[in-house]
Amino acid sequence: MRYRSSDEDSARWQDFRFRPGDIVISTRSKSGTTWMQMICALLIFQTPELPAPLAELSPWLDWLITPRDQVFAKLENQAHRRFIKTHTPLDGIPLSPLATYIVVGRHPLDMAVSLYHQGDNINRGRLAELTGAEPAQPGPGRPARRPLREWLLRWMDSDDSPADQLDSLPGVMWHISDAWVRRADPGLTGPTVLLVHYDELCADLEFQMRQLAGLLGISVASELWPSLADAATFEHMRAQAAKQAPDPAGVLKNPAAFFRRGRSGAAAEILTDDEIARYYKRAAELAPQEVLDWLHRNEPHGPGRTHEVMAR
């Protein structure tokens, strides 16, 4: 499957040469991509003082802003264990037995609220300049952006195909459901796929980092864990936004605003109980129950059940 948008194209993965140990972070927008990149960086380099900005250490391969040959050359020249960013679902990228694929799941309502606010932080003129797209013209003919609650309700009811809108609710559910099916193969005949839940990173970050290190075959000295876990906190990453926000091309108006909140439950502050129930009814139409049970774990917006954090 090929996924394309105004600034992404999954076809850029064609002919990419994998190495043993490569890590691919495949995550929906505002679902913990940068957080997982930072965690992987800390596990690989084992110091809070990273040797370069995070976006340089972990390039976004399918982003059209940077020429593909330049991204490939950068990755080819990296001597450390590589960890590569993509927002493409696993059915849109090569699946190599040499690599481990990490997919982070977040409650879709929280992801959507964060996505809405992220939209206000993007310099659309700069983005159009970099992609060659026609910039949107302000003025009376351009409709104003919908208020958050109205936008969120429309997002919940969207029928957009994942192929057209990956950040729609159908797109989010497809990304996780596809990864869920693939997680069963523990790397014996194909790639290793790990699912990590955003809320559990929030709940016990050091434990999750230790668990992930074990699954990636990375040994970390016990005395290093406190400093590594602290460097991966929301507060620390926000303080280091200039180095850690995914903005090598200057598309963000405010890099620190990229790390806006870092916790769950925002939609419960916006939607009524009936509207949240409407979301769950819609979600049940888009994904298997076992996927929904895992994705909605701890239910910041309603009742739920507890499941394993990392699914294999």
Tell me briefly what this model is.
This protein has 312 residues and is an alpha/beta fold. The protein has helices spanning 33-45, 54-57, 68-77, 108-120, 124-131, 148-157, 169-182, 198-203, 205-216, 225-231, 234-239, 241-244, 255-258, 273-284, 289-295; strands at residues 23-26, 83-86, 100-105, 192-197.
Query: In the CATH hierarchy, what is the architecture at level 2?
Result: 3-Layer(aba) Sandwich
* Oligomeric state of this protein: single chain
Biggest sheet descriptor: 4 strands, parallel
Large-scale geometry: globular
Number of strands: 4
CATH class: Alpha Beta
Number of domains: 1
Q: At the fourth CATH level, what is the homologous superfamily?
A: P-loop containing nucleotide triphosphate hydrolases
Helices and strands, in N-to-C order?
EHHHEEHHHHEHHHHHHHH
Radius of gyration: 19 Å
- State the strand order across the main sheet: 2-1-3-4
Distance between the amino and carboxyl termini: 23 Å
Share of residues in helices: 40-55%
Q: How does the helix and strand content classify structurally? A: alpha/beta
Roughly what is the average pLDDT, rounded to an integer? 85
Question: Could you please describe the fold and organization of this structure?
Answer:
The protein is an alpha/beta fold and 312 residues long. It has one domain: P-loop containing nucleotide triphosphate hydrolases (Rossmann fold), CATH 3.40.50.300. It is 42% helix and 6% strand. The chain contains 15 helices and four strands. Strands 2-1-3-4 form a four-stranded parallel β-sheet, sandwiched between helices. Helix 4 (108-120) packs across helix 6 (148-157) and helix 9 crosses helix 10 (225-231). The chain is globular, with a radius of gyration of 19 Å. The chain starts with 22 loop residues before the first strand and ends in a 17-residue tail after the last helix. Mean pLDDT is 85; it is low at 300-309.
